[in-house]
Structures
1.
Amino acid sequence: MKNNKHYQSLLTGLMLIIIGISFGCKKDFLDAKPSTSIISPTSLSDFQQLIDNGNVNRSSSLPQLSCDDYYLINEAAWQASTPTERNAYLWSKDLFGGEVARSDWNSPYLSVFYANSVLNGLGSVTVNATNVNEYNDIKGQAYFIRAFAFFDLAKNFAPPYDQATETTDLGIPLRLSPNVNEIIQRSSVQQTYQQIINDLSSACQLLKGDVPVVSRNRASKPAAYALFARLYLSMRNYQKAEVYADSCLILYNQLINYNTVSKTSTTPFPKTNNENIFWAFAAVGYNNSLYNAPANLNVDTALLASYAPNDLRRNLYFITANGLTKEKRGYSGYGSPFTGLATDEIYLIKAECAARRQDVNSAMTYLNALLVNRFAKNTYVPYTAGTPNLILNTILQERRKELVWRDGLRWDDLRRLNKEGANITLKRILNGVTYSIPPNSPLYVFPIPDDEIILSGIKQNAR
């Protein structure tokens, strides 16, 4: 069958993980690997190890390449980039420029493959009073992983959610089985988002209530609530986004006082930092998307200028050398951007949703609770009463400053805010030529890699 070869490669990758020959030697959860004794996973321990392996929790890098967090300083820097980097920077219709086997598409589907393999395999496990809690938690983690991966794919390779067109807009192939011979066509956007909601609803029922403070790559009930809040914010269902933000913060609401974080370290935040609810990172290490990227790029100057003098984020997020300002390693504690879930994002979702329903006091309470931890000690002046629109605009500005280089968040914000009428046009200038992407452009939907189109026969996105 047409796509058998592609998914057979995923199966081969899974088996390599199972026999324990495909990972390096680090000992933290980024590099966790199953025991070499596992030939065919049968026990709950086996299935947990499959979920913990380093091929899960990986997201697309395309949103970071395409958003307005940075600019390349000259044409030479652009020419030195890969075809995908060059084309993403200028929002070209031919995004991949002949490059194949793109991890931006393949890595989330590999996570889906692991999740489906675990969900399928758990059917052979005998459940009893002694293992039911562990069984439920592992099953909940698998549902969460699939939802997280499907949502990442939908944000990048499907149009932004719009209730008016959800049944006719094309979503993504919803692979719900580890069967490598099964050909799956694209579902509608409505079906795609409903599947994500179904998976997250199952995860919420099954997962443990505590964030695993050592293994933050594992999902938990707060993580499921946080992902629901992010999902509904993206769908512009602000009522439900606020409900799930509240549900998350009731269970886990820790914030880091940035006065306690090293200003000189290039890795100020470890993967296990207290705001990290669920750890994930961008799969593809394009030079132009990495923290402290080696390419000649600079963080957007307007963004840099927006930080107040006593705002600690300016020095904690960025490093300046040789006249260029670049990102330090963020919440991933790693070279690639963080794509997981953290409490600061949830505080901002809560504040935005409260402002949208004109509850100014609640909006300011959550915004101030976050920002007092971002300014030098005894310098923060809390926001006071204002109109709902003024407070909303302030929250969106703070969201821009707080969540910079969180791969996928800025791009998804541009998609949803332009749907709200924000009328944001992105522009790049290269060699004297201005390139732009207008609001609600089809260029906000990335093309599916050509090799996937050939293998599976699914319909390509119009660009």
2.
Amino acid sequence: MSRALQDRPTRWHRGLSPAGEGVGSLSWSLRRTTIGRRQAEEDTVSGNADSGGPVRHRLLWVDGVGGFLLMLADELTIGQPGGDAPPDIAILADLSRRHARLSRREGSYVLTPYGPCEIDGRPIDGPTLVPDDAEICLGSVRLRLRRPHALSATALLSIESGRRTAPAADAVLLMAECAVIGPGKHSHICCPHATDEAILFRGAEGLRCRAGGPLTVAGRSVEGPVVVVPGERIEGQDFAFCVEEVAEV
């Protein structure tokens, strides 16, 4: 992935999935790849051998779709970038360094305010459940939280007020046990030109990927689930993506 691409977000295609797409095959795939919460917590993408700790986030680039911050922790801080302890989701806006905390609890999302926050136009002053497709306002920053599929706690957090994340990305993928890249309206990342689904899921070796057909990893054809290694391009029949490490903001 070129550095020029990293420095600018690509267009995120929204609402382009085929009308009437069913959930049958996706539901089956999610059941097949979803692992138990306890195992997921134990295995949480521990592929950062240098630091010895779990990896909290990556950058996910999907060809023809855009770039996404792939967040892997159950609790994330949101705020302005910079400082000795930058937030997990850094937004270039007039926010405090630690403006809010977004937590995933038993499949739901809870927002805890440290600065001015609203959910669907209502100010909050304590931990508050965030409904699906809710608008979150952090000062002048408007965000939207969506859970595309009822069987997955993974959600997509998009910025709707013209602000940008640091590093730049089109949206933030809040990954629970698994996430789907595909053409259906229930996909977490809509890839309208694809005919197959790719499913990212957590495993003992970190992030893994499976698809309905064979995958090509760094130019090599591979059958079955593959380990997602940062910097290696993964291609399916009609899609391609790459996961990269995130530089310190």
3.
Amino acid sequence: MDSPLFFLVYVSTSTRIFSKKDLLKLVAASRQRNARMGITGMLVHKNGQFMHLIEGEEETVTLLMEKIGRDKRHGELITLLTGQQETRQYPGWTLGFKNLNTSHSKAIESYAPYLELELTDPRFAAEPQLCLDLLKAVIP
């Protein structure tokens, strides 16, 4: 029997401004790395902040998180939620991505409750279900 999958959700504030091109390069490189590592998940960007759900084998997720923690592009990295799950929430997505700064994102009703909050808002840490709700809301 396979062991349960591990997942982790963190938020961070970038230490530099990411252009649209920078974000797309970051996502492309992450997708390649995640495919090699057996990682899936979802990344959300808003106003220089990231929320990221990573899922896979616990050791692999932990190693990836350590690497992310050493990345100088991240500041104020906060782990919001960890746990185990039976199946992947994002099967087939080495990295789903949504930029909530776009005008298209602002027009989607399911994002409305989250657009007023910064991704590092303490409510996400106090109510981790909000993280999962936001990450599910952005699935196309």
4.
Amino acid sequence: MTTLVKSILKDALRLSPNDRAALVESLIGSLDQPDPSVDALWVQEAQDRIAAYHSGELTAIDAKTAFSDLGQPL
């Protein structure tokens, strides 16, 4: 932990519980930013799977069977 981070943490610990919670939520939220390139890859994957299903290259099974095959009850 750098000196700057230690200083920020020391200051943050002086905040009220509500302000600390808001700070934590903001910091965690800043880490969870969507990546447009990954989103685009998932869109393409979904489109490819739908196309394969419609062309008959891919078949579907019902959820009960899928989860049963995984050993998980539905």
